Every structure is written in C-alpha cells, then in structure tokens.
Amino acid sequence: MMAGLSFYLVIASPTPAHAMHIMEGFLPVQWAIFWWVVFIPFFVWGLRSITRITRQHPETKLLLALAGAFTFVLSALKIPSVTGSCSHPTGTGLGAVLFGPSVMSVLGALVLLFQALLLAHGGLTTLGANAVSMAVVGPFVAYGIYQLVIKASGRQTLAIFLAASLADLLTYVMTSVQLALAFPAEVGGIGAAFVKFAGIFALTQVPLALSEGLLTVLVWNWLVTYNYQELQTLNVIKEGA
C-alpha cells in the first residue's frame, strides 16, 4: 500500500516542478560551472567512501539502497509554496547519519539526476548547484548536528530529529544563497536578494522540515528494530545500547 501511494505521488502527478531545485538553464553559465567545480571533489570522495563501505561491509548494500530510495521519494513530494514555487522534503539526513555525508553526495546526485531526467525537476546544467545544496550542505549539516547532539546528550532520537530537520532547512538556505549570488537585487544587493529568495520557502519549509524530522525518527526506529546488526556494523549504535 505504501509503495503504491509513493509511486502515485512521485510518478502520476502531472504538475510541472518549480521547486527548490534550480531549473534547467536558470543560472548564468559562470555560476552553473562554478557550482559544478565545487561539487565534483565531494562526488569523487563519495565514490571512494561507497567503494570502501561496500567492500568492508557488503551486508549493508540494502541499507545503502534504502537511504537512496528514501531520499528519492521524499524529495519528489512537491508541496505548493508561495509565488508559484514549491517546497519539498530532502530525505538526506537519514543516509548522512547512517553512512556519513560523503556517501550522500553520490546518492543525492543520482537522485537529482533521475529527477531532472524523469520528473523535469531541476536540470542538468544546474545539477552541480542543486547537488551542493541538497547532497553536500544538507548531509554535512545532518551529520554534524547528529554527532554534536549525541556527544552532548546521548539522546539518539533527538539527534535524528534535529539532524533531519536542520538538514532540510539548511538545504533551502543554501539554495537561497546560490540564487542571491547569481541574481543580486538592484537595491540591497546579495543580502536583499537572499531575504527575498529565502522568504519564498519560509512559510512552508519550517513545518515541512519538522515533519521530515518526525518521519525520519519513525524510519530510524524501524531500522533499529529490524536492522540492528547492520547499524552496529556501521558503528551508528553501540552494542547494548
């Protein structure tokens, strides 16, 4: 039932995507190239990390696929925002906690590629910029917040919730920065443009980020119940926790 609902929401909806992903051809050429140059080192690092993990722990391949599928489904659920735009979850926090942020640079880029080709969501020339925001900044925020909260309080559920929620929010903040740099306002420059772009998503994104945090906690609890051994293998949870 859940698989059928996810398939309908992702594939069957005919509405065009004007979402957080920057659409094809929207960025000036120099900025499109710049963000590709920024992203490529993270992608190479991620490929090496995936190779190392799958060689050392081949039993975690299904969990790796789950992290990618979770990101794909959540980031394809488009929710109308103001000014004709859309907001959506990102789903990168779970994979960043499980495998580290570098792995999500690859999984996130693959998700963005499929969405650009199959759903007209984003674009190929802007894939570098979209990957930096969703597949680099979001996962690194999630991983950092998770580690910080775990060390400070030891409360894993709280750490997962904050990691997923803040990864979602900071992804949108980074996209707003990218757009502000490319299209500074005539009055107020980059700062004024950032306020404008960030305001487009603010009304819907805060509750959406909180909802993503709660959903990620539910999925995490499911993994702890049914994939406890794999989580121990990845050193995400300690034996006897």
Automatic annotation (TrEMBL):
Family assignment from sequence similarity: Belongs to the CbiM family.
Q: What's the chief localization of this chain?
A: membrane
Biological processes, Gene Ontology terms: cobalamin biosynthetic process
Pathway assigned to this chain's UniProt record = Cofactor biosynthesis; adenosylcobalamin biosynthesis
The entry's function note states: Part of the energy-coupling factor (ECF) transporter complex CbiMNOQ involved in cobalt import.
Q: What keywords appear on the UniProt entry?
A: Cell membrane, Cobalamin biosynthesis, Cobalt, Cobalt transport, Ion transport, Membrane, Transmembrane, Transmembrane helix, Transport
Which ranges does the record mark as transmembrane?
29-50, 62-79, 99-120, 127-146, 158-185, 197-223
Domain of life (superkingdom):
Bacteria
What kind of membrane protein is this, topologically?
A: Multi-pass membrane protein
InterPro entries reported for this sequence: CbiM (IPR018024), CbiM/NikMN (IPR002751)
Q: Which PANTHER family match?
A: COBALT TRANSPORT PROTEIN CBIM, PTHR43627
**Localisation:** Cell inner membrane; Cell membrane
Protein known as: Cobalt transport protein CbiM
| Summary of subunit composition and partner proteins | Forms an energy-coupling factor (ECF) transporter complex composed of an ATP-binding protein (A component, CbiO), a transmembrane protein (T component, CbiQ) and 2 possible substrate-capture proteins (S components, CbiM and CbiN) of unknown stoichimetry.
Q: Per UniProt, what is one GO molecular function of this protein?
A: cobalt ion transmembrane transporter activity
| Gene Ontology cellular component list | ATP-binding cassette (ABC) transporter complex
Q: Does the keyword NAD apply?
A: no
